[in-house]
Amino acid sequence: MDAVVKKQQRNSRWTREAVTGDGRAVVVYPTDRDVEIFKLLTRYRYLPSDYIHAFVGGSMGALSRRLNLLSRRPNLYLARPLRQRDTADANHRHLIYELDERGARVLKERGLSFPSKNYHRNFAHELMVSQITASLELGTRERTNVRLITWPEILANPNTPEATRQSPTAASIPVTFAAHGERYALHINADAWPFGLERVIDDVRTYLFFPGIEADCGTEPVETGSFERSSIAKKFAAYSAIAEQGIYRSHFGFPNFFVPFIAPTKVRMESMMTLLQRMTGGRGSKMFLFKTFPVLSSAERSPKASGHVLIEPWLRAGFEPFTLTA
User: Which one of 80, 102, 111, 175 has the lowest number of neighbouring Cβ atoms within 10 Å?
Assistant: First the structure.
């Protein structure tokens, strides 16, 4: 049973010092609800507390206090990445959490799998990917006619080619294409794992498949004179070749193929869509989907933790907006 606290000492939100009561550090032991939070943070590396609350429910105030205790000494089941302090209003945002090593050990002791802890150079990008993909899952909870098809489920499906299922880099898509008078042979790795959506509309079951998402923080050029370096134009060319050559079928066994691009601002998104129109000779493309989502350093706050990424329509260059749930 957790220690009973009569009066807690106020600590800085940025330290890991213990919360004390009656002169003693408050010790907590993981509950089943805590374990659900640990599991959530294996699917989504970084999540703000409001996203965690959207998944586990209950009182937001009580959850915030629990997350605080889980991240402080001597407990240390969760961590609060210090890189979230890089924004001017960091003290007024929801705290961002990740699973710490002690939390991972709890999952291991319960026979639950968890990924190894990798360190990312771009915290803002990884957070953006986590929030976008978490919003997709939350959307399937709000729209019960849509089910998320996870990467492990895709790999276990007999429609996925055996060579892909056995590959240690199965999510990486090999493609060769010509551009700027040169031939390029690359492996395309989207942000996040490939996934699908199973939809039931008017009693008809349909499927949509994605190689992951392309979350853009505005750090790479939209267009360059060559494809020796990464750019949005290079990604458009590579994904277009994957579609034209049917590689999404031969590599994943997907019957269709959509690529979501998420930009940090409307201006950036519109420049991407304009470039795609130009690259396709004004035809545009049905397979590329566009949406905005602000980065951590943006003055614009992230949208409310919800299923908006799935539910709200996506824009397309040259075509009407596309709704994933209908």
Answer: 111
The pLDDT tens digits for 188-203 are 999 999 999 999 999 9
Range of the domain at 98: 20-109
State how far the alpha carbon of 155 is from the alpha carbons of 161, 167, 243, in Å. Answer: 9, 10, 20
What pTM was computed for the model? 0.93
For 2-60, write each residue's pLDDT tens digit: 544 444 446 788 899 999 988 899 999 999 999 999 999 999 999 999 999 999 999 99
Pair of tokens at residue 262: 């998420």
Q: CA of 275: how far to CAs of 188, 205, 218, 232, in Å?
A: 20, 34, 15, 9
CA angle 149, 56, 50 (to 5 degrees): 100
- CA-CA distance, 326 to 316, in Å (whole number)? 16
Of the three residues 52, 83, 109, the one that is the final residue of a domain is: 109
Assess contact for 101 and 117: CB atoms under 8 A: yes
